[in-house]
Specification:
Layout: H1 2-128, H2 135-139, H3 153-165, H4 169-182, H5 189-202, H6 206-219, H7 226-239, H8 243-256, H9 261-273
Helix pairs in contact: 1-6, 3-4, 4-5, 5-6, 5-7, 6-7, 7-8, 7-9, 8-9
Amino acid sequence: MKSTLVYILGIVWLLTGCMAQQEVTVLDGRVAALEKQSARVVGQDARLDANDKQVRDIRRQVAGTAADLERLREELELMRGNLEVTEHQVAKKLSAGDDVEAKRKMELERLEAQLVAANQKIDRILQYLNLAGSGEAGATQPETAPAAVSLSDRELYGQAKKAYDSGNLEDARQGFMDLLKQHPKSKNADNAQFWIGETYYREKWFEKAILEYQKVIEKYPKGNKVPASRLKQGLAFSNLGDKTNARLILQELIKKHPQSNEAKIAAKKLKKLK
């Protein structure tokens, strides 16, 4: 009986030991599985953290790029605004320049018309007095000097200038006109044309003087008398009481010949015209 009990207890202990060993084995397997799963989770978390960092970096880059784009848009809008202002200013200046030229052209045409009318009136008076176109008057004209004794351009210019300086304006004017007729390509041609205008200016025939000065500007644009011609045109208009055209021409003189002595005189005159 006693031996049977011992046998039974042995069997129970054996079975119990086997079951405990199996449970331990199962638990070990579960622990290992959990550890593997935990490692995978940790790896996934690490990858997620890395991804989050990349996402944050990308977001920062996108935000920076957006800010740069916004800055560029603002700069572009500013440049467009400046361009529009510049275009408007240029258009305004061009328009103003066109207006000045158009006004001056109209004024010159008006003066030419007045001169034509004045010459026609003089012709009628001469015809009435029987002094124009008479054969007797033609007979009293001096004979044309032979070509062999014709004066050089320097001699003609010197004689005409001497007559001008002495106040003999008619002889001076005729001398300068002879120079232009006989020596049109003379180096003194632009000066001669200018002094023709000066003879009319001194006679206070300002309309005619303005037209003669205009010939200097148009025929000899690179000559040294262009600034002086513009100045005297402005002064002539001022003497005629036309302050508008006087200002326009003096302003044009300052703009085109800013370093000339005439520009300094024009600037002083403009202050008085205001």
